[in-house]
Amino acid sequence: xxxxxxxxxxxxxxxxxxxxxxxxxxPEATNxxxxxxxxxxxxxxxxxxxxxxxxxxxxxxxxALNRVYSDVDGTPYYVNDLGMxxxxxxxxxxxxxxxxxxxxxxxxxxxxxLTTLQDDFIILRNNVFRYAIGTTNISGDFSKIRFKIGLxxxxxxxxxxxxxxxxxxxxxxxxxxxxxYINNQIAIIADTSAIDMITNYNIIDNTISVELNHNFTVNxxxxxxxxxxxxxxxxxxxxxxQNDDYDAIISKIITNxxxxxxxxx
Length: 265
Known about the structure:
Largest sheet: 8 strands, antiparallel
Strand content: 35-45%
Helix content: 10-25%
Order of helices and strands: HEEEEEEEEEEEEEEEEEHE
Shape: globular
Number of strands: 18
Number of domains: 1
């Protein structure tokens, strides 16, 4: 009997020694475990944009909704609301190779086609300061950041009912009207004596590419936070609300948009 128990003990020890220890074997993950035998359950760090709205010319205060400003002709106005899509984020190395986030989303287009998109959509609003762009499994040195203001051609065809209501592409985010996504919407009251006269300036078709030079390092297993300033006042710097018609104002906003972003060191 003792011999049988001894043999069983030996067999159990051998069996336990043969079991794989599961863990994440990817050194780019936040839960990297070099002692694991079999990889599973990897969790990856976030690419985070921390955006401020300060430091525009002639004023040291942050941009704010419902604050009175003056246009180029001295006419007072204020911004009642503002929303702007940012997407297609890229981190660029010195050799011009490009890295993107890992996240994807399966969506249905308006013609019924199923497709998968890179899921790095955010809506810029001046009362939000921290944006999680997505997860990454990269490390090393980078020299540029690229992204688009607006949605690319495929993303602009998404059926908003195919995404969760919390997703930026949901119609609940108020940037989808009459079957069309609005890349950039600014609600303006150009006559401060008539507070109910709100005009929505909707930019639909124009997608603007932004490239910012910035030397930074992504460390394995750690979130990467990039600080950017969005000078939203610049969007309207050249506008004359009394003499420009709607199309002229839209054109000026589009022209001004590419210059609103700068790196905060």
